[in-house]
Specification:
It comes from Photobacterium marinum. InterPro entries: FApF. This is Protein involved in meta-pathway of phenol degradation. The protein has a single domain, classed as Autotransporter beta-domain (Lipocalin). Helices cover about 5% and strands about 60% of the residues. The strands form 2 sheets. A 12-stranded antiparallel beta barrel has the order 1-3-5-7-8-9-10-13-14-15-16-17. A two-stranded antiparallel sheet has the order 11-12. The chain is elongated and about 65 Å long.
Length: about 325
Amino acid sequence: MLNVLLRSAVIMPLFVSLLGVGSVSCVAAEAGQSHYWPGSIASVIDRASPSESLVINVSTRRHEGRVSHNGTPVPVGRFLATDVDIESEMLAVAVNWNPGREIVEDWMYSAGMKIPYISQQVTATIGSGNSGVRKSDKDSGAGDILLSPLMLSYAVNRTWWGDVRFNIYAPTGRYDAESLANTGTNYWTFEPIVGLVHIEPAVGREFSLFSGMAVNTRNTDTDYHTGAQFHLASTYVQYAILLGGFTGIGVSAYLFRQLSGDSGSGASSGDFKSHGVGLGPVLSYRSRWGGSAIMAELKCFYSVESTRSPDGNHFSLKFSMTY
């Protein structure tokens, strides 16, 4: 019975997500940013390990964009700002461990942790009209740690897998409400995610779909409560035998939507609901080296639609090794 319920937990939310693709938008957040990074969990390289293993993942990402919506002030710390320009870079190391145990029948258990180092520069106009002053801040250091205490992988058959996980973002990064740029958010995020992964070696095809919900706690320094965020991301890759392994090219897309408005005395711009849609190309590579499986992925997302969230382009590079 529990096995059936877990299968339903994977399939039903994904089915509902697909029905609502046309209207999916994203969540607002303090400073126009949140723990969710567009397309961060969207590909086979991101899936929970289906067998006993230790997976080391190194990733980097870069984003340049602007938060601007018809002159609506953006809450950034204790400031209300307009024309907020954001440059952000991250280098992260993640470790995922599968001890080779089934938590319930046919569901393989694993757990993981991700430690990021973030560099950020934010430039914005503080004040309005002729009294507006352009201000710029920089910050670099350890960001908020991602903990994944529960990751489950289920083999539907030899080419399809279900993926269920629960992520926790801990506010371990530095935060200063008087600064525009911070490596931390000063609040917790709890994020259940379900996914569906398809790998067909005979034709060199991979497809993945992940859907999640990010629920945030209140930033006690600013009394700002960022609303809950729904997100959906998918990737399709076609492989060919090349460069001593399998080299693939494909496309990836993301959508995100706010399901509840921002609140608290710090939310002086109202619920600040935002949404975003993006897509772009993917280059992927997988092979074996020294008895270990390796994967690499280069991805670029172009912002197609962005309201009250950073526009611009997102670049990411991931490398994983499975022991």
